[in-house]
Specification:
68% helix; 140 residues; Zinc_ribbon_dom; single chain; transmembrane helix; membrane; Zinc ribbon domain-containing protein; transmembrane
Length: 140
Amino acid sequence: MIYCRSCGKQLHESARFCPQCGFNFQPVEAPSPSIWMAVTALVLSILTLLLLLATFGDMDTLNTLSQLESAFGSHSLKKKLAEDAANSAAGGLVFGLPAGVLGIVSLMQKRGGRGMGIASLVIGGINLLLILGLFGLSLE
């Protein structure tokens, strides 16, 4: 026979809980750490990086065409270059900011996926530099 740790009632050894006070003798399992936030942050960061890198490739092509066009006295491509740069920078912010917030929150909660949260913040820093570069292009 065993005794309840809560109320002291004598119980059978196979008892799972105390019938008098309801104390549970089974250990409570801790919930497994969820990594969905870190995964989401990493995916958004990578998508933002791909969007911005593709935009920079297009910007290089448009810049070359703009230089050729300005040699002939027209500036319509330069305006398109500035508009595309501003739109891509805004799109990068739309995806990049939630990725950064999710990465920070996943690190602060100390759950699983710590490496993914750190990776999303590093990629987010690179994205921020690319966004600043695109805003610089849009102001030229």
